Amino acid sequence: MNQTKVNQIISYIKVQDEFPFDVFDVEDQESVLGYFGFHPRLDDEERKIIQAELMKMAEAAQTAEMARIMCAEPVPQRLYRRKYCTRMEQSVSAKEWLKTLPEELRGSLASQV
């Protein structure tokens, strides 16, 4: 087993801007390595190590994508909320938001703020 070859392949893939594969895609290791320009001859041990590293990268990419989708959901009236997160953020204050409502919907809310 050539540990240097394995480390260089993994390091090169990790520094790339994107990793567009999910955990099902990395099962076909040859196409993933081919995407990054590698067509190496690997023995079984090297193949196993690279497979494990690719799986970790794919899981991390999938988790990051799920978090991005779940925590950044735009809502009506140009407000912005973070769904399923502990912090809540809005792009406008309550006073600014009340100004956007029609008069009949404001009711007693306008006097409270």
Provide the descriptors you would attach to this structure in a database record.
single chain, 113 residues, mainly alpha, 2 domains, two-stranded antiparallel ribbon, 2 strands, rod-shaped
Could you give the count of β-strands? 2
Mean pLDDT: 78
Q: What is the spatial order of strands in the main beta sheet?
A: 1-2
**Uncertain segments:** none
Structural class: mainly alpha
Globally, the shape reads rod-shaped
- Quaternary class: single chain
How large is the share of residues in beta strands? 5-15%
Q: For the CA atoms, what is the radius of gyration?
A: 24 Å
Overall number of domains: 2
Distance between the termini: 69 Å
Please tally the helical runs, counting DSSP H or I stretches of 4 or more residues: 6
Quick one: biggest sheet?
2 strands, antiparallel
| Helix-strand pattern | HHHEEHHH
Relative helix content: 40-55%
List the helices and strands and how they pair.
Elements: H1 3-14, H2 29-35, H3 44-71, E1 73-75, E2 79-81, H4 94-100, H5 103-106, H6 109-112
Helix pairs in contact: 1-3
